[in-house]
Specification:
- By secondary structure, the chain is an all-alpha fold.
- It has helices at about 30-40, 50-55, 65-70, 80-100, 110-125, 130-135, 135-150, 160-175, 190-195, 195-215, 225-245, 245-255, 260-265, 275-290, 295-310, 310-315, 320-325, 335-350, and strands spanning about 180, 185.
- The radius of gyration is 21 Å and the shape is globular.
- The termini are close together.
- This is Rab-GAP TBC domain-containing protein.
- It comes from Paramecium pentaurelia.
Amino acid sequence: MLSIQKVNIATLYNRNEEYKSCNRETDREDGSKIQKFKELLNQNIIPINELLHLAWSGVPSELRSTVWRLLLKYQSPNRDANFTIIERKRSVYFGMCDIYFAKNQQYDEREKKILKQISEDVKRTIPDSSVFRNLQIQTLLERILFIWNIRNPACGYVQGMNDIVAPFLVVFLSDYVDIDTTKLQFINEKQLDHLDQRLIRQVEADSYWCLCKLLESVLDNYTNSQPGLVRFYNKFKEILQALDKKLYEHLTTSLSMELYAFIFKWSTCMLLRMFQFEVGLRLFDTLLAEENNYFELCLFIIISILMKFSLKIQKLQYDEIMILLEKIPTREWSESDLSLCLSEAYAYQRIFSKK
């Protein structure tokens, strides 16, 4: 069983039936914080532990691409070795593109089926965004996901991975093209048309490798029996029962309700569908700063969110709860709301630690 330290949960727990936005300004773009990041990044050997600590509470937009590559260990903290290592990885990816997308390439029936599924999912990826409606972006996203499928036969491509690649594509592309991340629209789409294809290919390669780095520790979430998600869900129930027994009993005893479908839906896309895109970028700052513990933090984020709506949920019946969770109110949250939730999730994570 999990152990609870002596902590006053009431200091964290939201006791209002309707969660009210905290409406605080985020300090992510604060000038002094940007300067702290730059001081770290300008060192010949970048101190990764200090960068992890600083990034946990948000990364300035202008520095995200570099910081994310470093947090995922795709980019070396040794500045002298950066170019050589990244160029080698990009070259490997370009070679895979040449193999799997060669002219007159013949695919077997299984590969055709996967390609069709990926193509359909790519078209459904944030369809109201001009970025992801762009045919060039859709094509490179299809390549990334298909190559992932080929190179990871144990799990292959799973719906939700398209959502996970999206932040990497936008952040890396933003180094060269102006993108409004609030509306997720190109400010001037002609910039992409005139962009050097070499740079677009680099964005594609970097997005692929960062996807690989992020998912390498949670591959068992995506295999057929999903053992990782089963463990995740069992731990979710155990912790929710300990933290909010009334909510747990209302869901499981009174309504005989299983939340596995929602946990699966939210966790396979790293919670990104629960938030607006720009808030999702802020979420990724923290998840990437968690290194190998990021998926565990996702568990506590979900619990923190449910507890914010606990009193409301306890008054609802089965169908009403299903409607609430299908259109989770977190879609309206700001970065400051997410930051508060992350702080609470971190506190819960510290409380529940195995002896």
